[in-house]
């Protein structure tokens, strides 16, 4: 069996959510699906896919390690985030092909199940604390055991206002739901001083973790943060290979690794980071803000890994975009389960995806300080 084609699909669902799915085809009539981790960079990622297709076309899709090494290193300069997104999508699709070719779900190829299901957290939200409380309660009533939302302040975020407002929100949630797992996403919007202030104020509320409390360019900054705060730290969604995780794993500066399988290099690289974390008693909490393919890949990894905290799942699988993705993984009561069908268990309605194509390039919303300075989204 040989790879014959790499096809990109960039489209949106009825709610306007953008997806960048990659289909890898073979001469055996078996195909696999992957997903691009930064769909807003669709233009350059599409060009990277076109170039990488030259390497994988005509190759054995089972040779995932060899193909990963060549895609990452064959340009002499190591792959950057654009190329890592393209590598990730191709690699995930290759694992999907391997599962379909062997008649096995992907998680059984990754080592087999160490659990029966994977606990997940949703995205909740609201324009004020009352709306946030209602959103949290609705999700808990539906069986979710965790809640997650952003640091408040959009489109204007002033740290001296956002920090106390966030503490008030978490106090209200904790009072209303003493046992729920609270995951707060700072989204890299604060500098070190304000992050330390926030973490210290949140210590009494028993957070499950605080996510991305610092920007990602300098992983060594977590060394200083870890010395000064006493809440569990989750980070890593923006690191595009195992090397981005090196310092925080080896020095045990985080408690949860936010591996994004669609950015880090696919299942091949994510599995290495996961086992590395295991040696340091760091649990994984795979980043998954995307669609059904990303969700399925993350859950497959969690099914076969012992060191798992919780899986991000913005919306319950099967509750959205079912016209575009008629086959998705299973879901019930706050838990995801891999389908027992071969591969990842996700299929794409290609004809509809073609009808709903959107521009490759797009931008995320902007966040500013009150003085007009640009802040992180």
Short summary:
The protein is of the alpha/beta class.
Explain this structure.
- The chain has 377 residues and is of the alpha/beta class.
- It has 2 domains: 3-104, 2-Layer Sandwich (Enolase-like, domain 1), CATH 3.30.390.10; 108-341, Enolase-like C-terminal domain (TIM Barrel, Alpha-Beta Barrel).
- 36% of the residues lie in helices and 16% in strands.
- The protein contains 12 helices and 15 strands.
- The protein has helices at 42-56, 64-73, 81-102, 106-109, 129-141, 159-176, 192-202, 221-228, 246-250, 266-278, 292-303, 350-355, and strands at residues 3-12, 18-26, 31-35, 118-121, 146-150, 181-185, 209-211, 233-235, 256-257, 283-284, 311-312, 330-332, 335-337, 367-368, 374-375.
- It has a 6-stranded parallel sheet. A 4-stranded mixed sheet has the order 11-4-13-12, with helices on one face. A 3-stranded antiparallel sheet has the order 1-2-3.
- Strand 12 and strand 13 form a beta hairpin.
- Helix 2 (64-73) packs antiparallel against helix 3, helix 5 (129-141) runs parallel beside helix 6 (159-176) and helix 6 runs parallel beside helix 7 (192-202).
- It starts with a strand and ends with a strand.
List the helices and strands and how they pair.
Elements: E1 3-12, E2 18-26, E3 31-35, H1 42-56, H2 64-73, H3 81-102, H4 106-109, E4 118-121, H5 129-141, E5 146-150, H6 159-176, E6 181-185, H7 192-202, E7 209-211, H8 221-228, E8 233-235, H9 246-250, E9 256-257, H10 266-278, E10 283-284, H11 292-303, E11 311-312, E12 330-332, E13 335-337, H12 350-355, E14 367-368, E15 374-375
Parallel strand pairs: 4-11, 5-6, 6-7, 7-8, 8-9, 9-10
Antiparallel strand pairs: 1-2, 2-3, 4-13, 12-13, 14-15
Helix pairs in contact: 1-3, 2-3, 5-6, 6-7
């Amino acid at each position: 069996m040989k790879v014959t084609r790499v096809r990109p699909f960039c489209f949106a669902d009825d709610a306007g959510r953008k997806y960048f799915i990659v289909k890898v085809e073979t001469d055996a009539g078996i195909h696999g699906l992957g997903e691009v981790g930064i769909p807003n960079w669709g233009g350059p990622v599409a060009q990277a896919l076109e170039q990488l297709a030259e390497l994988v076309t005509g190759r054995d899709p089972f040779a995932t390690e060899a193909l990963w090494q060549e895609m990452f290193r064959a340009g002499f300069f190591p792959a950057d985030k654009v190329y890592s997104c393209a590598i990730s999508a191709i690699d995930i699709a290759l694992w999907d092909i391997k599962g379909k070719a062997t008649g096995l779900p992907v998680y059984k190829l990754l080592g087999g199940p160490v659990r029966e299901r994977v606990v997940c957290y949703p995205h909740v939200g609201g324009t004020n604390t009352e709306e946030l409380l209602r959103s949290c309660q609705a999700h808990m009533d539906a069986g979710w055991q965790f809640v997650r939302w952003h640091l408040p302040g959009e489109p204007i975020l002033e740290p001296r206002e956002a920090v106390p407002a966030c503490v008030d929100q978490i106090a209200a949630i904790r009072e209303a739901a003493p046992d729920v797992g609270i995951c707060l996403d700072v989204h890299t919007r604060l500098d070190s001083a304000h992050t330390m202030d926030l973490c210290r104020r949140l210590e009494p509320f028993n957070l499950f973790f605080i996510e991305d409390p610092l920007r990602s360019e300098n992983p060594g900054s977590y060394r200083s943060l870890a010395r000064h705060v006493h809440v569990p730290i989750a980070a890593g969604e923006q690191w595009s290979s195992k090397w981005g995780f090196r310092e925080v794993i080896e020095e045990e500066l985080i408690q949860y690794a936010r591996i994004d399988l669609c950015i880090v290099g696919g299942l091949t690289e994510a599995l290495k980071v996961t086992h590395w974390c295991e040696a340091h008693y760091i649990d994984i909490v795979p980043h998954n803000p995307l669609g059904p393919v990303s969700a399925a890949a993350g859950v497959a990894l969690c099914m076969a890994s012992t060191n798992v905290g919780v899986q991000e799942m913005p919306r319950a699988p099967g509750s959205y975009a079912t016209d575009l993705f008629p086959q998705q993984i299973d879901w019930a009561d706050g838990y995801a389960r891999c389908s027992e069908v071969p591969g990842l268990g996700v299929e794409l309605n290609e004809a509809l995806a073609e009808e709903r194509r959107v521009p490759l390039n797009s931008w995320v919303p902007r966040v500013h300080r009150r003085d007009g300075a640009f802040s992180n989204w």
